[in-house]
Design goal:
Length: 584
């Protein structure tokens, strides 16, 4: 039978003005169908085998390369036309709200899913004139929807839609059947479902939803939200402008004080302040040096305990040596260990005794934070607020410098000076640990001795542990030698016990040979042979039960092995340590 090439086969034939499938018409030329591509006469080829599909074949045409695509394209159009509806693609609508006073538009994407629409009127390939372009286009289908909108449909099998057509026609959608397999095309139900609902589809242009109540409502909501946001921004801008104007006015009013902050922030300004305070506090410094002379270490003229550089030490109207000497003398010097100190009450006493520089005192009055919280003056920036410390914070910094860095008590003076206090876990409270430098030195010496004693004990314990390990190792070696000797003596004892019951070699050979033959006669095809006494057995054990010495190895009981067993025994090397005196 003549083979028909694939390009001469088509899934649909044109019968009059309607496309039909090969199974729906008589077989052969009686189908009365023509090719929708080239117009040639077709004959229907029916297949009774369910694994083979029916098709239309060209009767006499030499070739028709575009027949398949044309048939699929035309049948898809016919299905849509006869169904009177289609599933249109999903659509993303960009909703945009613009306001005159806002340079930024508010944009929202509205996702509309696929949905099925119904035609009230539909025509094939009608010429459509676009007023804007004045061009004539012929879409595959032109449909009128229930809302009187016009929908244009293109079906793509091998050729995509014309690019100019996609630009000029509004509400133009395309159904892509280019990747549809032949098996689906040949299945009427699947092919119809793909064309109407499932096949990939897209919009080129679409304004179907633009005037719908749902979209208009979403657009109105977007504009209302945009107006609310714009109003809120205006309120926030007005509030920010008001706050900025208020802050600017306050900074102008306190301009000289703010300049003092910036002056003290510079090294030159800080040094000038220290020089001024040094002249102001000559008597106080002299008194502190005399009163606390016993707290000076070797080579010091001023005790390190009252010569601490701490943040904010310029705040009081007294040199740091003077006010630190005041604090140390009244609250720490020669006080009993365990005496409690409170930074806030000490700060009040220092302020009463020395006072605070006037401009800082007036600025701190504007702060509304708690006592030990950082000052937060609303019209100052972060750096200015950080520089301006409260009196209780400055005193807390000083007391902190006299405390060890951890909760572990230490009496060892380091490069930062001796540590007289220890901080309590609750708030800015401190406890006197040592009242004088001499107490610190005594405690330091005692701590050094205790450390040396701990190191000595640790060394002795390490040495004792080392010696114990050496003794344990030597004992383990001796025990290993003893166990090895004991094992050797036990083995020799078992061997001597075996020799007492040892048969002469000739009798052993006869016994072992007969024993092996008996094992074979009982149907065994394998056994175990003692390496020492050469007695075969069917029982697998670690040590031969006969001699109590030899280990067993497996053997295969072939006819050849059994026949030559006696000869094998005679040629086997003896494993015994010495020859039995009873052997001939």
């Amino acid at each position: 039978m003549r083979q028909v090439s694939d390009n001469l086969r088509t899934p649909f034939g044109l019968q009059g003005e309607r496309l039909v499938r090969p199974d729906d018409v008589p077989s052969g030329l009686a189908c009365n169908c023509t090719c929708p591509g080239c117009g040639a006469e077709l004959q229907a080829r029916h297949r009774s085998n369910p694994n083979h599909r029916s098709y239309f074949a060209h009767h006499q045409a030499a070739e028709c390369p575009g027949g398949y695509e044309t048939a699929v394209h035309s049948m898809a159009i016919q299905i849509i036309f006869e169904h009177g509806g289609i599933t249109i693609p999903e659509k993303t609508i960009e909703l945009r709200s613009s306001l005159p006073d806002d340079p930024d538009d508010l944009v929202e994407n509205l996702e509309l899913p696929r949905r099925e629409v119904t035609f009230i009127h539909c025509v094939y390939e009608t010429r459509v004139s676009q007023e804007e372009s004045q061009r004539l286009w012929r879409p595959d289908l032109t449909a009128t929807l229930k809302n009187e909108a016009t929908l244009y449909i293109e079906v793509a099998v091998s050729h995509k839609s014309d690019i100019e057509k996609t630009r000029d026609l509004d509400n133009l959608m395309e159904i892509d059947l280019s990747k549809l397999p032949r098996s689906i095309v040949d299945d009427p139900e699947q092919f119809t479902n793909q064309v109407l609902h499932l096949a990939p589809r897209k919009w080129f242009q679409c304004s179907l939803y633009d005037k719908t109540p749902f979209v208009q409502k979403r657009l109105e909501d977007l504009k209302a939200r945009h107006e609310r946001q714009q109003s809120q921004k205006a309120i926030e801008r007005a509030k920010a402008d008001h706050e900025h104007a208020r802050k600017t006015h306050a900074r102008l009013r306190h301009g000289s004080k703010i300049n003092e902050i910036h002056t003290i922030m510079r090294p030159a300004g800080y040094n000038a302040r220290m020089t001024q305070l040094l002249k102001l506090s000559e008597n106080g410094i002299a008194y502190a040096q005399q009163r606390l002379a016993s707290e000076c270490s070797e080579g010091e003229t001023i005790p390190a305990a009252i010569h601490r550089s701490v943040p904010g030490d310029w705040l009081f109207n007294g040199h740091p040596i003077a006010w630190q000497g005041f604090v140390f003398d009244h609250y720490i010097f020669q006080k009993a260990p365990g005496t409690l100190l409170f930074a806030d009450s000490i700060a009040d006493a220092v302020v009463q005794a020395f006072g605070v520089v006037d401009w800082a005192d007036k600025l701190l009055a504007e702060s509304n934070t708690k006592r030990f919280s950082p000052a937060h003056i609303w019209f100052l920036d972060a750096a200015e607020n950080e520089q301006l410390l409260k009196p209780e914070v400055v005193i807390g910094n000083y007391l902190e410098s006299l405390s060890p860095p951890s909760l572990i008590l230490t009496a060892n003076p380091d490069s930062t000076g001796p540590r007289y206090l220890k901080r309590r876990s609750r708030g800015r409270q401190y406890e006197v640990q040592f009242g004088t430098l001499k107490e610190i030195q005594v405690a330091t010496e005692e701590a050094r001795k205790q450390q040396q004693e701990r190191e000595r004990e640790s060394t002795e314990q390490a040495e004792a542990l080392k010696q114990m390990r050496i003794r344990d190792l030597a004992h383990a070696k001796e025990q290993a030698k003893h166990d090895a000797l004991k094992q050797q003596l036990a083995w020799e004892s078992r061997e001597q016990s075996t020799l007492k019951n040892w048969l002469p070699e000739k009798k052993r050979l006869e016994r072992n040979t007969k024993h092996l033959q008996a094992i074979q006669e009982h149907g065994y095809d394998h056994a175990y042979l003692c390496k020492y006494c050469h007695l075969p057995t069917t029982k697998r054990t670690d040590i031969c039960e006969e001699c109590g010495v030899g280990k067993l190895e497996p053997i295969e009981l072939t006819s050849e092995y059994v026949a030559t067993f006696e000869h094998r025994l005679r040629t086997m090397p003896r494993i015994r340590a010495k020859k039995d005196y009873r052997d001939p």
